């Protein structure tokens, strides 16, 4: 919420905030949320309690309930965001309980996502950081004002300790519970501005390593409720048979055998498939397998063969006469490269990859007249409301979304297809909830894959080896053309998610980025770090190619190119010391990569060996140094880095989706290869925050550097063999060795 972010003002009401852009203050309205805006858990927490605002409720026993506006999918955000409020209001963390915020974007929307409720893009902490701190500070001022009235002293004479207001001159104290039971809300409401926020040296919770995650105990003892665990009275189950080729429709449905399966209650023709409703999961799965459907044959995706298209993408990337959208330009790149003493040309490619979240897509829906209630592991409650309303023909305000825990998200659960399944089937049995669970085969074959892409980078060097110009061409389909057509059009056909990470902070005299969209009909989507996951692959490998061409150390080259970037230099120097970069290793080599994506600086070094006979790469250890600006929960940051590095290692070595004439060839973990525990590297993480820097995102920061670090290690190990195609399959490695 710094820099170019524009705050939206709206009229104050009993359920909203008045945010003033001038001083960046927040006035929190008193009163209660009603109806759809207040879920049952919050209703219980608020009963008889003291409610300074829509985010905080204090009970007479001193228990403080704090709303968590983002969804928990393993990244610890259910702890991180409420902790900011607790810090500023001086709550006793041992007396805090966290409540998942209801679907109410007006109150709980993320300023970093234009005010909607959406968790992704490593935007939760960055988007909510300032707002939640101000809400905490506002809450503290309300509490102090109430206590001043009870003690008949000036507010300025009071201070707070965790869960308690203290009047030092008289030695009197009031617990937050006493204030909740007997205090009156002040009128007028006190204002909170940045001046009311705590100094960093006064933080009690932020930055501590010993704050446990609030979601872990229930996950350990089995009481945690994921979407797949939801049970409702009188519930039915649903399954959907989708076309083997995306975009086809059922033309003839022979369901005679399927209808005869015991427990099946309905067969429902849909525009995109055939739905089955039944009394058990087993009945719906059996009936689905017995359906005999003739599908249309008109989809453009029938012409989609990923291996052929990737070669076409590469040829387009190489052909600089094929112009696209200029995503960024500084200096005269064409002239700089044309007059360079040496030009480095490099192609880098990435296959389609799927999310394969441990919890497959699922949702439960209940339709009653023009009202819909949904229980789902969704990353986007606001989008869920809109799509569900479209299915039923109602308005989003009549759709209530109960967000459960997510068994992995990675961008996949920001989609709405599984929501549409549940609502479409529930509409057929009005008044009864229907729970749809995708099979693993459905989950993989009908994913919204990370886009197929090819990149071509040209770098001009002068006679001394200095960079004179850098051209980066990215060829891929667009995510935004499907998910946010208005934004895509406003950007002139540029997709900054697909090209994210291409704009580096290396010192480049001339730099140009071009995006050339290829639309072949296949839906592609957000996937864990999206564009940064492959743009940094190309960039960081090319930096090593430049170092090799100049005969200099790749770590030193990065420090030279980042001479005006102290945070970047610090993480690179730190990770170099951690890995003992200059120490020789027998039969193994180290590779380095750096990224500044999502507002956090990260450098990684991978320790790699290679079996030259089989082409199998082994990643033994990865060291990582990360600067998130503000380290709200250092131990949790380490955990997120480990997740990203592990996932990124598997993505670099194994993961790929192959499509032949529109049909996905992989269907389960026997064919869609993910990293196994025995293949996971040892990981060491150093968190090195920089005082005074803005808070960065963390959820996806660990993934982008690990793939290029592996590739750069292989190049050092083999005397310069470059791996340019994700994933680094053994046959591709052998081909590179033999080239």
UniProtKB/TrEMBL annotation:
<feature type="domain" description="Aldehyde oxidase/xanthine dehydrogenase a/b hammerhead">
    <location>
        <begin position="221"/>
        <end position="299"/>
    </location>
</feature>
<dbReference type="InterPro" id="IPR012368">
    <property type="entry name" value="OxRdtase_Mopterin-bd_su_IorB"/>
</dbReference>
<dbReference type="Pfam" id="PF20256">
    <property type="entry name" value="MoCoBD_2"/>
</dbReference>
<protein>
    <submittedName>
        <fullName>Molybdopterin cofactor-binding domain-containing protein</fullName>
    </submittedName>
</protein>
<dbReference type="InterPro" id="IPR037165">
    <property type="entry name" value="AldOxase/xan_DH_Mopterin-bd_sf"/>
</dbReference>
<dbReference type="Pfam" id="PF02738">
    <property type="entry name" value="MoCoBD_1"/>
</dbReference>
<dbReference type="InterPro" id="IPR052516">
    <property type="entry name" value="N-heterocyclic_Hydroxylase"/>
</dbReference>
<dbReference type="InterPro" id="IPR000674">
    <property type="entry name" value="Ald_Oxase/Xan_DH_a/b"/>
</dbReference>
<dbReference type="InterPro" id="IPR046867">
    <property type="entry name" value="AldOxase/xan_DH_MoCoBD2"/>
</dbReference>
<dbReference type="InterPro" id="IPR006311">
    <property type="entry name" value="TAT_signal"/>
</dbReference>
<dbReference type="InterPro" id="IPR008274">
    <property type="entry name" value="AldOxase/xan_DH_MoCoBD1"/>
</dbReference>
């Amino acid at each position: 919420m710094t820099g170019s972010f524009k705050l939206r003002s709206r009229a104050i009401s009993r359920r909203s905030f008045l945010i003033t852009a001038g001083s960046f203050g927040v006035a929190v309205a008193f009163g209660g949320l009603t109806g759809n805006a207040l879920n049952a858990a919050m209703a219980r927490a608020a009963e008889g309690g003291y409610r300074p605002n829509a985010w905080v409720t204090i009970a007479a026993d001193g228990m403080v309930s704090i709303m968590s506006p983002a969804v928990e999918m393993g990244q610890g955000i259910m702890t991180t965001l409420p902790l900011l409020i607790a810090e500023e209001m001086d709550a006793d963390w041992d007396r805090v309980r966290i409540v998942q915020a209801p679907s109410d974007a007006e109150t709980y929307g993320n300023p970093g996502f234009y005010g909607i409720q959406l968790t992704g893009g490593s935007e939760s902490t960055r988007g909510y950081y300032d707002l939640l701190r101000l809400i905490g500070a506002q809450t503290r001022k309300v509490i102090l004002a109430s206590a001043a009235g009870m003690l008949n002293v000036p507010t300025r004479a009071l201070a707070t300790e965790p869960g308690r207001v203290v009047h030092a001159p008289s030695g009197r104290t009031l617990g937050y519970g006493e204030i909740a039971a007997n205090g009156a809300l002040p009128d007028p409401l006190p204002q909170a501005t940045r001046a009311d926020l705590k100094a960093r040296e006064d933080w009690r919770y932020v930055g501590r390593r010993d704050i446990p995650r609030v979601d872990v105990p229930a996950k350990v003892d089995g009481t945690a409720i994921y979407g797949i665990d939801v049970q409702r009275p009188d519930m039915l189950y649903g399954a959907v048979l989708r076309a083997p080729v995306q975009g086809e429709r059922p033309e003839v449905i022979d369901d005679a055998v399927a209808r005869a399966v015991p427990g099946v209650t309905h067969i429902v023709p849909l525009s995109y498939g055939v739905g089955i409703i039944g009394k058990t999961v087993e009945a719906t799965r059996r009936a689905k397998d017995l359906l005999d459907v003739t599908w249309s044959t008109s989809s453009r995706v029938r012409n989609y063969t990923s291996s052929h298209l990737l070669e076409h993408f590469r040829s387009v990337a190489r052909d600089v006469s094929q112009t696209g959208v200029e995503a960024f330009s500084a200096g005269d790149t064409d002239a700089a490269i044309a007059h360079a003493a040496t030009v480095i040309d490099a192609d880098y490619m990435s296959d389609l990859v799927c999310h394969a979240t441990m919890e497959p897509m699922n949702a439960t829906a209940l339709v009653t007249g023009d009202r819909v209630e949904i229980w789902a592991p969704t990353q986007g409650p606001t989008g869920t409301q809109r799509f569900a309303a479209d299915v039923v023909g109602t308005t989003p305000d009549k759709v209530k979304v109960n967000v459960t825990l997510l068994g992995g998200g990675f961008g996949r659960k920001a989609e709405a297809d599984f929501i549409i399944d549940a609502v479409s089937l529930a509409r057929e049995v009005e008044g009864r909830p229907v729970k749809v669970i995708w099979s693993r085969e459905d989950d993989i074959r009908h994913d919204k894959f990370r886009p197929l892409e090819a990149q071509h980078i040209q770098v001009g060097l002068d006679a001394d080896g200095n960079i004179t110009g850098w051209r980066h061409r990215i060829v891929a389909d667009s995510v935004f053309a499907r998910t946010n057509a208005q934004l895509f059009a406003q950007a002139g056909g540029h997709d900054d998610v697909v090209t994210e990470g291409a704009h580096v902070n290396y010192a480049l005299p001339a730099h140009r980025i071009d995006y050339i969209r290829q639309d072949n009909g296949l839906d592609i989507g957000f996937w864990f770090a999206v564009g940064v996951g492959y743009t940094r692959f190309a960039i960081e490998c090319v930096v090593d190619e430049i170092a090799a061409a100049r005969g200099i150390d790749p770590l030193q080259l990065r420090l030279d190119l980042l001479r005006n970037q102290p945070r970047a230099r610090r993480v690179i120097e730190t990770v170099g010391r951690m890995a003992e970069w200059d120490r020789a290793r027998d039969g193994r080599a180290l590779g380095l990569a750096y990224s500044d994506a999502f507002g956090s600086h990260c450098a990684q070094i991978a320790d790699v060996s290679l079996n030259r006979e089989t082409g199998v790469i082994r990643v033994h250890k990865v060291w990582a140094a990360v600067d998130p600006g503000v380290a709200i929960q250092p131990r949790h940051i380490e955990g997120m880095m480990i997740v990203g590095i592990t996932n990124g290692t598997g993505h670099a070595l194994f993961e790929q989706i192959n499509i032949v004439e529109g049909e996905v060839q992989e269907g389960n973990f026997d064919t869609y290869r993910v990293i196994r525990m025995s293949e996971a590297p040892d990981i060491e993480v150093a968190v090195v925050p920089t005082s005074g820097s803005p808070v960065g995102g963390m959820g996806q920061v660990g993934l982008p550097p690990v793939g290029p670090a592996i590739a750069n290690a292989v190049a050092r190990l083999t005397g310069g063999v470059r791996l340019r195609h994700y994933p680094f399959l053994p046959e591709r490695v052998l081909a590179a060795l033999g080239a």
